[in-house]
Design a protein that fits this description.
Helix content is 42%, strand content 16%. It has 337 residues and is of the alpha/beta class. 46% of the residues are buried.
């Protein structure tokens, strides 16, 4: 059974852009030449295209529902992000349908089908690294897509809101190098994700620029879900020559990593300097208070909702908003030696 025709198929058959097809579907949203309109209507008829989702919503009024698709609501960063997005959307009279994928590509695909059927006007998401075709189908239906924190390769028409992951990893690494640390453990997300890659590459590039040799034994790229932060941290501490500093750049694994350090005989910062990518209140209450990379979830949420509620059917390239994270130096880092 063939898949239903999409707005992209109509545009290709008529030899025009998706934006022009959208203007035809939403009469009054922009000028269309009579001959062009006729080509579009002919393509719609021949392909049995059935316009729906956000295109209809635009015709009848402003978007009133957004989908929020998060990878893992047990991740403190994503939980805070969800809270901020729901608050931001409600302040604009917009409802939010929250779904989670548990970092599972199959669950994500099912969720996308559900959101398409619910005809949401836009979707804000922290995607898995796959399902590019499913994301493109949703965009073809006229749904605004805004990726937050990470994105999917090949989905160029989805907007992106993120911190500068490369710069953040560089800043944390530079801080430790300036303190004289050269054996730095680095725990980040999977290299299959854009976040995990960017942070790891930023860390390695900074070491190279400062003339510090890379030791693969000091790198840990681990899943966001589960409790592998404890194992990763333990394996670093048990190396024959352990690191004198660790950066936990996998936000979901911060608590597990810190717990493993507390269970050891290692003292922070006397024996080990520690930096974590997290903004949980407990990081300041911890003894010693932790040096952190703070991700501005409230600002990220505001930009995400802004983008999701903007234009529908526009086939322009991705709009990217990069927000600087705040590096907060506290008591968990000190001079090496």
């Amino acid at each position: 059974m063939s898949k239903p025709a999409t707005i992209r198929d109509v545009a290709a058959a008529a030899g025009i852009s998706i934006a022009v097809v959208s203007r035809v579907l939403n009469d009054g949203s922009g000028p269309v030449a009579p001959a062009t309109r006729q080509r579009v209507m002919k393509a719609i008829e021949e392909l049995s295209y059935r316009p729906r989702t956000a295109a209809r919503e635009l015709k009848s009024g402003p978007t009133t529902t957004l989908g929020l698709l998060l990878a893992d609501v047990t991740n403190p960063f994503f939980a805070r992000l969800a809270d901020s997005i729901v608050r931001e959307a409600r302040s604009r009279g917009v409802h939010v349908i929250l779904m989670t994928t548990q970092e599972d590509a199959r669950l994500e695909e099912d969720a996308l089908d559900t959101l398409a059927a619910r005809r949401v006007g836009g979707v804000i998401a922290t995607p898995t690294s796959t399902n590019a075709e499913s994301w493109l189908r949703l965009i073809d239906l006229g749904t605004n897509i805004v990726f937050v924190d990470r994105y999917v390769e090949g989905v160029s028409r989805a907007d992106l809101v993120s911190i500068d992951n490369d710069r953040s990893a560089r800043e944390a690494t530079e801080h430790l190098l300036d303190l004289g640390h050269t054996r730095i453990g680095f725990i980040s997300g999977p290299l299959s994700t854009t976040t995990g890659r960017a942070r790891t590459e930023g860390h390695l590039a900074t070491l190279a620029e400062r003339g510090v040799a890379t030791d693969p034994q000091l790198l840990r790229n681990i899943p966001f879900r589960g409790d592998q932060g404890a194992d990763a941290t333990g394996s670093l501490l048990n190396l024959p020559t352990p690191p004198t500093a660790i950066i936990v750049a996998n936000t979901a694994q911060v608590a597990a990593s810190v717990r493993r350090i507390r269970q050891s005989s290692v003292r922070v910062p006397e024996d080990l300097s520690l930096i974590v990518f997290d903004d949980n209140p407990w990081t300041e209450l911890f003894t010693p208070s932790l040096t952190i990379m703070r991700q501005p979830t409230t600002l990220m949420a505001a930009h995400s909702v802004d983008l999701a509620l903007q234009r529908i059917g526009d086939d322009s390239e991705r709009r990217t908003i990069v927000i600087e994270a705040e590096f907060v130096v506290r008591s968990s880092t000190r001079t090496a030696g």
